Each structure stands twice: as structure tokens, then as C-alpha cells.
What we know:
The protein is α/β, with parallel strands linked by helices. The chain is built from 16 helices and five strands. α5 (152-163) links the parallel β3 (140-144) and β4 (169-175). The longest helix has 50 residues, at 303-352. It starts with 11 loop residues before the first helix and ends with a helix.
Amino acid sequence: MTGVFADLAGQDAVVAQLSKAAAAAQGGPGGYGGAGSPPVIGGGLGGVVPPGQAQHSAMTHAWLFTGPPGSGRSVAARSFAAALLCPSGGCGDCASCRQVQAGTHADLMLIRPEGLSYGVKQTRDLVLRAAGAPTGGRWRVVLFEDADRCTEQAANALLKAIEEPAPRTVWLLCAPSAEDLVPTIRSRCRVVTLVVPASSAVANVLVTRDGIDPARALAAARAAQGHVGRARRLAVDPSAAARRADVLRVPLEATSLGPALALAASLVKTAEEEAKAVTEELDEPERDSLRKAFGEGSTGKGVAKAMRGMAGAMKDLEDRQKSRATRVKRDTLDQALLDLAVFYRDVLMVQLGADVELANADRDADLRRLAAATSPESTLRRIQAVMRCRDRLPLNVAPLLAVEEMTLSLAEA
Ligand SMILES: [Zn+2]
């Protein structure tokens, strides 16, 4: 399997469903269902094809991605967004596909509730912006993560948008299960149900696609909790593996004030370095193509004027790059915290004698040492401290402060 769906291991039914929809969507709103079909998604009233109707189009304007945490709801939704926006239906390689993966595509709106819930004003603004025409391609895609965190009024605003869809807007909602959304929204969405891929399925992809040694692939698949892209990075990129090793030093070394503060500083620094590597790779080519678009290096009438115009556009671009850098930094740190939480969960499983597959089976000795030295209650408190830190980071708390508070709690728990 190649292209944008390559990261969806063990989700064959979902991939088949989405590929079919993306192929049907290739022609744009007027294009699918055959030439000359009306510019209404799905071909039914309000764009929704009633269940069981014979002319059931593969494409529709509202999708609901469900599945347990870690099953890749947002990965699936993002892959689908890439397939809809890519000129060749989701190659995974072109500028459009890369921008979708980086979250910088102009026709992709990524929405993630920042607090505990998503408010009505935010949703109304979103609905207005979503209704705009696509800037480049055929579609404007709104990817709404954690749609279950909408407040009731926000859900009503969202419902309106889905009931009376803008012709070129596609909504992709993500929630743990269909029951997490009000029935009125749920019934207007095509539901995509993900399953948690078995570590063996993920490992299998790494072995067959990337030629990775089976034992290493399985350890990486377990560590990555079913996330193929991350499993691959852990298996092939020594610096990713080293960063994970750094993170997992925390449970063993955060035993008193001094080390706790030092570990917090190093956690934040490591995340910043990783984020910097990721964003730098994206930033320079973007600045480069902007300069080319404004004709830098050419001479003649009008060039000087164009160059003055470029200064403004460059500033806009740099502002966007800056906010992306902040986001990547936060996501990277969040991933590190998730690794920590999963490590403590493994410790708890050992303490409780539960017979489950451990994500950190490759660190069995560390797990058992910590399990023997601490109580299940303190492990639970540590998991809570990590989760509290994850909740605080999106609230504009200085990362170092939030992480220090966490490592201090880990040392005390
Ligand atoms: Zn592409």
C-alpha cells in the first residue's frame, strides 16, 4: 500500500471505503456521479443520501471518524483530506500532500478544541470560514478533531453547517464513538470506524514495506502504540529512538527536586530540537518558492515594485511559519508526555499483574524495577500528573513551568 493511506495499518476496510470516496471526489462537486451530475454532494436533498438509497454515492460532505484512542482517527481523517486535496488523488509525495501532513495546506482547516470544550462563538466563526471557496483545488476540508468536545450550542451551529453544506466544503469530524455526538449530527455523517491495529499488523507493514528486521519492527510497533508512522521513525531513525530513550529516563531518575528540574529542562529542550528539525525542513522551501513567485533574481520594469509587494507576503508567511513552529513544538512535547504516560501505564499493569501486551516490553527490566519500588496508587498519581501537564500545555502555560510542575509531582508521588 502506498500513498496517503500507507500509515493506516490493519484498517483495510477503512482504506477501501476512503479510497473509493476519494476517487469519486476527484472531479470536484460537479464531477462525481458521472459527467453532468448536479453540483450537490451525494446527489440527495441537502447533500445527504438517505441510507439504503440505490444511488449511494461513495462521496459525501460530512464524515465521522470513530475508533478508540490510538487507533488513528485523525490519521485516517488527515489521509482522506490529503487524498481529496491532492491533484492525483493522494500520492503522498506532492507539495499538496506534504502540506496536508504538515497542517499548512491553505484549503485544510485543522480544528482542535483547545480547552475542555468547543464553544459556540468559535464554532460560528469556523462555520463562516469553512463556507468560503477553496483557494486552489476542488475542495475545502475542515478536519474537526475531538468533535465530541463541542458544547451543546456549538453542536447546533455545527449541525446547521452540515445540514446546509457549502457545495465545496467537506467536514471530517473525529470522535471516540458515534454515540459521543448528538444524534442529529451523527445521522448526517457517513461513519468511518477504525479498529486498534494489532502491533503485529503494524510490525508487518514495517517489515514488508520498509525492510525492517522483524524483532526491531515489533518493539517499535509496541512502543508506538499502533501508530505506523511513528513506529517506522522509531525503528529507522536513531535520533528518534534516542529522544524516546531520553524521555523514558524521567521515570527512573525523577526522584528528588534537583534531578526533577534538570529532567524537565531537558525534556523541553529535546522537544524543541526535534520540532526545530521538523519545521526547518518545511520553512526554507516555502520561503524559496515565495521568492520565485515574486520573480526574485529577474530584472526589468516592475520588478522593484513586485519586490516591495514581496516584503508583505514574506512577513505573512513568516508569521504563519512561526505559529506552525509553536504548534509543532507543542505536539512534539505532547508526544513525549504520552510516551511517559504509557510507560507508567505499563508499570501499573505489571503492578496489577495484568496480562496485557506492554508498550515498553523492550524495557522490561526498568518496568519491573519501578513496579517493585513503588505502589499502584503512586503510579496512578504519576499518570494523573502527566495527563494534567498535557491538559495545561495548550492553555498557553509556559512549557517549562508546566513540565517542571509535572516532574516535581513525579518525584513526590
Ligand atoms: Zn499528492
